[in-house]
């Protein structure tokens, strides 16, 4: 059995650091743009028994992870637009664990994969147009009592997508599905 922390954080915890350099911004944008196709290539043809396998003991199933990524990135897209159009808006947090228990988390993954492809197409257009001033625009997250700059959001969601992709990819490797 692998270390539970290694299963929970396959690429490590979200790195927090100094403001982004331009080349980092471009790399994060590329990661966000590539995620929908990369995730779809991995799981789109999987049968239900694989989709209903937890990626770790007491963790979400692959199906729940895919739906969670769609839920989370929808929220991030809206938060990005709020930060671009309002002055440090207070965003609404959500209970992601509770969302993963709702009936739509049991749907086939195809709707969330389709949603991610369309969502990321729109989100990336917004992100690519960000100026250095835009990257400093912020929103306030009351759940973490923290203000996030859009530069931080870009890094966070590039990490978030890869984090969950690796949950699934490493599960596939451990089970000989690749």
Automatic annotation (TrEMBL):
Domain of life: Bacteria
GO molecular function, one term: metal ion binding
UniProt domain DinB-like: residue ranges: 35-168
Keywords: Cytoplasm, Hydrolase, Metal-binding, Zinc
Pfam families the UniProt entry points to: DinB_2
SUPFAM superfamilies for this protein: DinB/YfiT-like putative metalloenzymes
InterPro entries attached to this UniProt entry: DinB-like, DinB/YfiT-like, Put_metal_dep_hydrolase_YfiT
NCBIfam families in alphabetical order: PRK13291.1
Protein name as it appears in the record: Metal-dependent hydrolase
